[in-house]
Amino acid sequence: MVTVLGLHGSSGRPASISSIIDALDLQAEVHCPQGRFADGTGFTFFRRNPDFSIPQELLLELARESFAPDGFAGLQDEEPLALVGYSSGAVFATAQLAVAPQRIAGAILLRPQVLAEDFLFPALNGAPVLLLSGLRDPRRKPHHATMLAAQLQKAGARVTHHALDTGHEPAPEDVSLARAWIADHLPQLLSPQP
Predict the structure, then answer these.
(1) pLDDT level of residue 72 (50, 70, 90 thresholds)
(2) Number of domain units in the chain
(3) Does residue 29 lie in a domain region?
(4) Is 63 exposed, middle or buried (0-12, 13-18, 19+ CB in 10 A)?
(5) Is the separation of the CB atoms in 136 and 167 below 8 Å?
(6) Spatial contact of 115 and 88, defined as CB atoms under 8 Å apart
(7) Is the pLDDT at 76 greater than 70, yes or no?
(8) Is residue 194 one of the residues assigned to a domain?
(9) What is the per-residue pLDDT for 193?
(10) Closest residue by Cα to residue 45 from 6, 103, 15, 79
(11) What is the CATH number of the domain that holds 161?
C-alpha cells in the first residue's frame, strides 16, 4: 500500500496541502506533517539562506532526518510513499527523492525549484514524477522547472512537466492534471468512481 505524504509550502500548515490532496479524491492513507521551523504565520520544512537561495547540504540532511525513526511521526518504516509537495514543500520533496529514492513510488511537485543548477540525483529507476510549474510565477525562475525535469530524466525518472499559464498559487488545472497523471502512473491511489 502506498501512503501519500503531503508537504505544505512556506508559512503554511498541513491544512493547506491537505486541501489540494482532498481535491484529488484519493483512497490512500494521507499523512501531512507540519514543518519544523516557524515561518511567518505558519511553518516551513527548511529555512532559506539570507539571499533566499537553497541551503543544499542542510536541506538534504533535513530530508534524511525526515525518514529517521524520530522523523515524520506516523510513517511506517520502508512503506512506499507518493509525495505531493507545493512550493517549498515541493523543494523538500525533491530533496527526499534525492536522499531516499527507494522509498518513493512517485512525486507530484507543484511550483518546484531546482536544488542547485548543477545538482545530480542518484539513480531514480523509472520513478514517475509530475512537475506543475507556473509561467507567471514571480517566485520561480522560468527555466528552473525545465532544468529540474532534465536533471530528473538524466537520473532515470519518468518525468511529465506541464508549464501552466498561472502564477505561484495552486490552480484548478493542477488538480485535473494531477488526477489524470495519477490515473496513468499510480492508479492504486484513486478512489473508484461511481
Answers:
(1) confident
(2) 1
(3) yes
(4) buried
(5) yes
(6) no
(7) no
(8) no
(9) 54
(10) 6
(11) 3.40.50.1820
